[in-house]
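Protein modeling request. Please complete all fields; requests missing the sequence field cannot be processed.
Requester role: graduate student
Desired output: 3D structure, token encoding
Chains: 1
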Amino acid sequence: MGDESLAGWMRALIAYVRSGEPDLTNRQMALLMLVYLTPGPHTVRGLAKVLGSRSRL
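Delivered output (57 residues):
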């Protein structure tokens, strides 16, 4: 991920925090990044396997 992408991500996070909405958990953030940065199609089972999670996502 280049500096430009990280700067965009930082701006998005700052805007989200300022919005007053509840923050994303680390699990939610990891899931978001995984879906965004890896080619699909994505399945719940496949995502759980990559994240090493047995529980439902």
